[in-house]
Amino acid sequence: MVSFSDLGIGPAIVKELNKQGITEPFEVQKESIPDSLLGRDVCCRAPTGSGKTLAFGLPLIARTKRANPKRPTGLILTPTRELAEQINSVLRPIALAVDRDVVSIYGGVSYKKQYNALNKGVDILVACPGRLIDLLDRRALKLDDVETVVLDEADRMADMGFMDPVCEILDKCSNERQTILFSATLDDDVADLVKNYQNEPVTIEVGPKEVSIENMQHLFWTMKPHQKLGVTSEILAKCGKTMIFCKTRRGVDRLGNEMYDAEMNVSTLHGGLNQRQRDRALKRFTKGGAIALVATDVAARGIDIQGVNCVIHYDPPENGKAYKHRSGRTARAGAEGVVISYVQRSQQRTYNKIQNEVGIKRRFQPPNVENLTEYPMEYVEEVFEEEVRRPPSNNKKRRRNRRQRGPPQKSRSSSERQRKRSHKSKRSNKNDSKDGKKFNPNHKKKRRNNRNNKPKKGNNNDK
Hints:
Blueprint: H1 11-19, H2 27-37, E1 42-45, H3 52-63, E2 74-77, H4 81-96, E3 102-105, H5 111-120, E4 124-127, H6 129-137, E5 148-151, H7 154-159, H8 163-172, E6 178-183, H9 189-197, E7 202-205, E8 216-222, H10 228-239, E9 242-245, H11 249-261, E10 266-269, H12 275-287, E11 292-295, E12 310-313, H13 320-327, E13 337-343, H14 348-358, E14 364-365, H15 378-385, H16 396-405, H17 414-430, H18 443-453
Parallel strand pairs: 1-6, 1-7, 2-4, 2-5, 3-4, 5-6, 8-13, 8-14, 9-11, 9-12, 10-11, 12-13
Helix pairs in contact: 2-3, 3-4, 6-8, 13-14
InterPro entries: DEAD/DEAH_box_helicase_dom (IPR011545), DEAD/DEAH_RhlB (IPR044742), DEAD_box_RNA_helicase (IPR050079), Helicase_ATP-bd (IPR014001), Helicase_C-like (IPR001650), P-loop_NTPase (IPR027417), RNA_helicase_DEAD_Q_motif (IPR014014)
Domain DEAD-box RNA helicase Q: 2-30
Protein name: ATP-dependent RNA helicase
């Protein structure tokens, strides 16, 4: 059995891996780590969930030098915030074992924290291209000292339109850098990236060339819109952990609220949520706090969630490629899974086209939940015992009601409260005397003095 020590990983890192129960490397790690440790450029095609994070992360940690303020020495580019945070959570404990720091930066959060982290000095920076370009434009950091760049999920970055920012970032890095690229496919824009920005790379291919859909049961159920929610409830009770894909943010919010009202514990994920809401939604789903995750395609890209038994295409995907990416959330690492598409009458032509692109042929048939594979129910019971929480929503009706009520009242400052108190005390002092006039202890003395100063009657000196 090959160990991480045999691949060239140092004892401090191996010790930390053993603490986490990681003792034997996966295939992609065996193939890529030795070349990466030697400083060679690596171009690796491997599917999501194959162990890529440690495959590029361990050599990067081992080779990265201590960084100066605002000048990171290692850089990992990822397409989404969730993937950046996921990589950070995996690599940070390992990096600390060799006195290296890992920080993730992405949009949707305050710049201030990221400025502070960069000013202290970041050894390995995990970044999304958009926010990194913003920080470079603000002169918050420089990439001249970056010696190793990792491009993770390069095909996804190409699909999301990040190729221009990625090329701009690579141009700002050191010319003598090492470039490691991981992607599910190596065609089109990814091939251009390899040609223009890698120097005689070692090419490694692990797993099938395309997302494998052989271990999945593909079902296409015809139904009317009002049937969808009830069928979904039955599927969750049978299959347990499920990912549900909708086409739009509004569709995700609407379905999440409908499932909440039907007492189904659910998390929602889309680009309209802030980072804290997105992190909370993912954590609840991965840790067992929610039985289902309702998401858009873009928001769910690059997320590696284990143990998903079922994928539901609530709305049809754009094309066959999107169908494969959605469906690839289940049946990972040799496991089995079921993929169910809800087909309305007007959508049958779309799904016929998708089946042709994917290379499968299935009949459209009515829902039949009884024939689904039943998964262990312990997980489902634990989920429903938890408090059901309404998912975050950008509901249009609620926004309209808030506008009608008007803006919330501003809280008074301490000076305003003090002025109000003094004003009240002045008003109360006016009512202290019986005649309603303000009490003055010298009041009688003043009246007496005024009386003495008045001229006496009949005393007319002018005459």
